[in-house]
Amino acid sequence: MTDQPSTVVTPNLAGLRALSHPTRLRILSHLRIEGPATATTLAARFGLNSGATSYHLRQLAEHGFVVEDAERGNARDRWWQAAHQETHSRAADARTQEERDVADAFLHAATVMYAQNLQAAMEERPLLPDEWRAASTVSDWVHTVPAAKAAGLVARIKELIASCEDEPGDDAVPFAFQIQAFPVPGHVDPVRTEPRGE
Question: CA-CA distance, 30 to 37, in Å (whole number)?
Fold first, then answer.
C-alpha cells in the first residue's frame, strides 16, 4: 500500500462528473492502495489498451485526482500517483437537480466498484489463512429507525473506522471496510423533483 499521508479531496461538480466513470474510479482506487504505476501497467491490470488508460489518467490529472510521480519514470514511461487518499462527494449537500444527478452517478460507479471488490474477495476467500477468514465478514442488519437516527449511526461507524491508524508490518495488509447503509428498497415514498402543476 502507498505510504502517502492521508489527505482528502472534495471535488467540484466537474471533478465529480469526471470521477463518475467506473474505469477512472477503479484506476484511482488502485493507485491509492497499490501506489504509483504507469499507464502500461494499469492497462494490463484492467484489461484496457494503453491509449484508453492514458486518456483516463489525463482526465483524472486535469481534475487534480492524480499527479505525475516526479521520483520515477523517464522520457518513455510516465508514472502516476494518487494526489489524495480519500474522496468526499458531499452527496447529501446536493441541492439542484444537476448536483443530485452527478452525485448519484458517482455513487452508482462507486457501488459497482464495491460490488466487484466484494466478489473478488469472496473468490479469493478459500485461499486465505484462518486468521484472515475469521477477521472478515459479509453481514447485514435491518432495524426500523427514523432518518435522523440512521444518519447518526452511519456517522458513528465512519468515525470509528476513521480512528483506525495504519500499522505497517509483516503481518499487515490493506483491509477494506465497505459501508452500505440504505432504506430497504420500496419503503420510502419518492421525492417529487418537478414543481406541481396549477
Answer: 9
Q: What is the pLDDT of residues 1-32, one digit of tens each?
A: 444 546 899 999 999 999 999 999 999 999 99
Model pTM? Answer: 0.84
Q: Is position 67 within any domain?
A: yes
- What the block records as the C-alpha cell of 178 is 465497505
**pLDDT for 144-179, tens place per residue?**
999 999 999 999 999 999 999 999 999 999 999 999
**Quick check: is 196 in a domain?**
no
Let me know if residue 178 belongs to a domain: no
Total domains in the chain come to 1
**b/e code 80-106 from CB counts within 10 Å (16+ = b):** bbbbbeebebeeeebeeeeeeebbeeb
Structural domain of 36: 8-162
CATH number for the domain that contains residue 19:
1.10.10.10
Query: For the chain, how many residues are written?
Result: 198
d(CA 41, CA 34): 12
